[in-house]
Design brief:
heterodimer, A: 116 residues, 0% helix, B: 113 residues, mainly beta
């Protein structure tokens, strides 16, 4: 079974609007971390935001926020006020704290295109 | 500073060549990783080093040989590669091998002719 599911292969958003990228996950480990990375065409994997399984509040980093719904096992990324430079592939990833030590599981990614 | 550096940025090699990829971090991280990524696919884990010891090898062919000379450096030695090995090779590091954030380098784009 897929541990990280990103159901949107491609998304379009108008510049200055907000967009939500979906991510659902599956784990039986009570301790885990959820991450979002941005990968522009240059190839570098840029860390955006982190949510720990025990965190009570949703994570925010500038224009990025993570809508964490633990019971539904979802960790959606919200990008506010989209910019042309946000066009990239976005990966959701999970690291399970005590099992599979060292391994990150990645979703298949969502390609975001910001239209001017 | 959350920088991971990788050299070279691009590499073209023949199937009989021997080459090495290098990765460096100065964040004091004790875990380092090699990933292979094909176009429009997620990264695939190859190796994990923890405290300079190989802790995970994801059944990678022996033509890929990792080396961790010290806590800041990670190498990937390449020998007798196949054209299907052409990919983006990403290095990453994290504080430990638990659930901490992994920071990635810019990658090496490898083309095997």
């Amino acid at each position: 079974a897929q541990k990280i599911t990103q159901t949107q292969p491609g998304m379009f958003v108008q510049e200055k609007e907000a967009v939500t990228l979906d991510c659902t996950y599956d784990t039986s480990d009570p301790s885990y971390g959820l991450f979002w990375y941005k990968q522009p065409s240059s190839g570098e994997m840029i860390f955006l935001i982190y949510q720990g399984s025990y965190d009570q509040q949703n994570a925010t980093e500038g224009r990025y926020s993570l809508n964490f719904q633990k019971a539904r096992k979802s960790a959606n990324l919200v990008i506010s006020a989209s910019q042309l430079g946000d066009s990239a592939m976005y990966f959701c990833a999970m690291r399970e704290g005590d099992t599979n030590a060292g391994k990150s599981t990645f979703g298949d990614g969502t390609t975001l295109t910001v239209k001017p | 500073d959350t920088e991971v550096t990788q050299t070279p940025k691009h590499l073209v090699m023949g199937m009989t060549n021997k080459k090495s990829l290098k990765c460096e971090q100065h964040m004091g991280h004790r875990a380092m990783y090699w990933y292979k990524q094909k176009a429009k696919k997620p990264p695939e884990l190859m190796f994990v080093y923890s405290y300079e010891k190989l802790s995970i090898n994801e059944s990678v062919p022996s033509r890929f040989s990792p080396e961790c000379p010290n806590s800041s450096l990670l190498n990937l030695h390449l020998h007798a590669l196949q054209p299907e090995d052409s990919a983006l090779y990403l290095c990453a590091s994290s504080q430990y091998t638990g659930g901490e954030t992994q920071y990635f380098g810019p990658g090496t784009r490898l083309l095997v002719l």
